[in-house]
Write a structure and sequence with these properties.
single chain, mainly alpha, two-stranded antiparallel sheet
Amino acid sequence: MDATFIFSQAVSGLTIATLLFLVASGLTLIFGVGKVFNFAHGSFYMIGAYFGYQFSAVWGTNFFLSLILTGICVGLVGMLMEFLFLRRIYGRANEGGFQILMTYCFILIIDDLVKLIWGTEYKSLARPPGFQGAFQIGDTFIPTYNLLIIGIGFAAVILAWYILARTRPGRVARAASVDREIVGVLGVNVPLTMTLVFGLATAMGGMAGTLAAPLRTVTPGAGIEVIIDSLIVVVIGGMGNFWGAWLGAILIGEVTAFGVAFAPKWATLFSFMILVIVLIFKPEGLFTRRKVM
């Protein structure tokens, strides 16, 4: 084991962490602002992968334009789901149970719609031009596309910080996460805020699906795996904690990357082992705070 190997695995871990963060941050944003547990969030990741395939591979759209279009389309689907369905159960008794049941139903519905539209066979998406090679450090080759994903993730963190901390919509979202009723009394359109937050969160998940498509196959059911890993990240970081999701994603990403390198047969267990330890000693999450920021 040398420095180049460690650096290579660290980059691989950051790539995994970035994709996890883009999904988990949307999940934790929805929970932090609206106290909505969207169990179908992984399905929006899967839809994003298929939209990216449709735009880029089928219609020949530029990859980066496809990424933006995917975010818009998936965000609109998420807003429609919140407006037509989830909004109807806000404030009901046992609201959390209704949320889980309804969003689980959407997992089944979306999976079947994907099979109906795109079929059941695996799809693939090529890496964008200019990012198909590798960057060499000593005897180690690091794919340039991985570096692109990390760069996009870092830009997303900075942009999210700016929106949440420096803009009025971000301050409204943070206030709504503390007390929606008081925010509504002050004249803020809370239902519209919830819909926009839901759209932003699902758009991030959809874009993560497009970014992951060149690294993985595009297949029905892909949302189940990613939602499990994202839930681990959210629980470790603290439910509703945006920055906790970022740090939790980095932790899980690096543990997964080095686990695959040193103990591949046990690699899938490491994330769950960390989750169990956190739940035993700090069930509220490692980075829990009482607000979104």
